[in-house]
Design a protein that fits this description.
By secondary structure, the chain is α+β, with helices and mostly antiparallel strands. Helices cover about 35% and strands about 25% of the residues. The protein has two domains: about 100 residues, Orthogonal Bundle (Arc Repressor Mutant, subunit A), CATH 1.10.10; about 140 residues, no CATH class.
Length: about 250
């Protein structure tokens, strides 16, 4: 998609970069200033990024909020209704679901870094976040992606292996949830034949072991299609991450 420069009423020109920032915030529901700067202001000063974001806040295209994580105050940016209207108008789209603000910023900010890194892997043909998938009617009701609509993974990843495409669900676990919630989610994944695999990226080893133990409850009745790795593995300089399942099978993504 190629956004065009436009002028908003009473303000300066809305640039292609601004539209791309709106798209970025809609895709992930939130992003920190550092994440936005890394993506869109690589050759600019910190001040240039700060000033531009402040202009977009002033015109109510985006918003800024604070949250507490690990006893530290942090802030994030999110898309507002005015920004969404321009995003839809620019791309001639109409989103059927308009979830603009994250209800779990710590998770979504962490997931953003993981997803953006995975997009650089040569085997990853496409990564569609939950918000993009659930808001786009064409994607949501397509034969290829419809099996994912009920389970709402954090993202759908299309992986290319020797000229063949495979669709997998991607889940990021930052902190533990109730056991019964995982049991239901795992069972739903196993019963959904249209989903070929599930990649769980866990924040720490303790959480990874807990999920693997829950997955073991289904081991005797299903071939294991849930693979696990740690979030830190995604950022190894080698550019390769290993996902493992209970069968001892490894999937190498690079």
């Amino acid at each position: 998609m190629n956004p065009k420069n436009k002028r908003w009423k009473g303000g300066p020109v809305l640039t292609q970069r601004d539209i791309k920032i709106f798209e970025f915030l809609f895709e992930y529901k939130c992003a920190t200033e550092e994440q936005i700067r890394k993506k869109f202001f690589q050759n600019c000063t910190y001040q240039a990024c700060y000033v531009r974001l402040s202009k977009l806040i002033e015109r109510a295209f985006i918003g800024k909020k604070a949250f507490i994580f690990n006893n530290q105050a942090k802030s994030y940016f999110y898309l507002k209704d005015n920004g969404l209207v321009l995003l839809e108008r620019n791309y001639s789209l109409k989103f059927i679901k308009k979830e603009l603000e994250s209800d779990s910023p710590a998770h979504d900010i962490g997931f953003l870094d993981i997803a953006e890194n995975l997009k650089e892997y040569s085997m990853v043909d496409r990564l569609i976040t939950e918000n993009l998938f659930q808001s786009n009617e064409e994607l949501l009701f397509s034969d290829e992606l419809s099996p994912f609509s009920r389970l709402n993974p954090d993202a759908i990843v299309k992986i290319n292996i020797e000229s063949c495409d495979y669709l997998v669900a991607l889940e990021y676990e930052l902190s533990p949830k109730w056991k019964v919630r995982y049991q239901k989610k795992f069972l739903d994944y196993y019963l959904e034949s249209g989903i070929q695999g599930v990649f769980y990226i866990c924040q720490n080893e303790k959480l990874k072991s807990r999920l693997a133990k829950i997955d073991q409850e289904f081991w005797n009745n299903f071939d294991s299609k849930i693979f696990f790795c740690l979030s830190e593995d995604v950022f190894f300089p080698s550019g390769k991450v290993t996902f493992s399942n209970l069968n001892g099978d490894n999937f190498y993504l690079n």
